[in-house]
TrEMBL record:
Residues 35-250 form the Calcineurin-like phosphoesterase domain. Residues 1-26 form the signal peptide. PROSITE patterns: 5_NUCLEOTIDASE_1. It catalyses: a ribonucleoside 5'-phosphate + H2O = a ribonucleoside + phosphate. It comes from Elysia chlorotica. This is 5'-nucleotidase. It holds the Pfam family Metallophos. GO terms for molecular function: 5'-nucleotidase activity; metal ion binding; nucleotide binding. Its EC number is 3.1.3.5. Keywords: Signal. It is an enzyme of class 3 (hydrolase). GO terms for biological process: nucleotide catabolic process.
Amino acid sequence: MGTIDKILHLTLCVAVLSQSLSVAAADYDRYNVTMHILHTNDFHGRIEEIDKYGGVCSEENSKLGECFGGVSRIKTMIDKLKIKYHTLIFDAGNQYQGSLWTYHYGGEVLAKFINHLGYDYIALGVNEFDHGLDKLVPFVMNVRRTILSSNFDDNKTPGPWAMVRKSGPNLVDWDPIGVIGYTTALTSNISKPETIKFTDVVAAVQAEVDSLILEENITRIVAYGNQGFSDDVKMARALRGVDIIIGGHSNTFLYT
């Protein structure tokens, strides 16, 4: 599979969502299995709808239908698409920062909204660490979704970090799908993960791919995480055995 095939192209962009809720299908003709993935990234605490500049939606603009996004719209679209498709739902990180919802209420409240949306897997983005580990702990403790980051090294840091896993299996039409998470290795330089370290993304993801293939006989593999589009393209060239890459962090809009 070539680089362009590996980098996920958005086959359906939902215009009403500023957070880029998208659906893509990976079709494996050999086994007659079709997988549909709904994914978001760089949500940045946009619990409420926003205007075209990313700011607070005024009552006037809301009445005129000139605002976008927000949890209500995302939930409505997820529920609509889940009726039509057998889906997996991902978030590629950067839930924190960007609104008073995360600044004031923090991770515990944010986790409640994430749980409500019904993600299967979420990634840890660089912004999740911007206020230190104490502010991230309530999110990790309260989110009832699988958190994945294959290059996450807690270095025996006290806290609930055992809840962050490298990968997770899933079944689509009873067919096993491997899911691997990752977080940019630059997190230590541009955020505040304190004693938590992040190893090389490509090496960590490839090691987990090899483990899924050799030890669990899983050959359909999705990698998703938070490091930016250009690094995802480089990673796609380097990896073996990954079918789809879903990325966040750089806020890159991909045209179909």
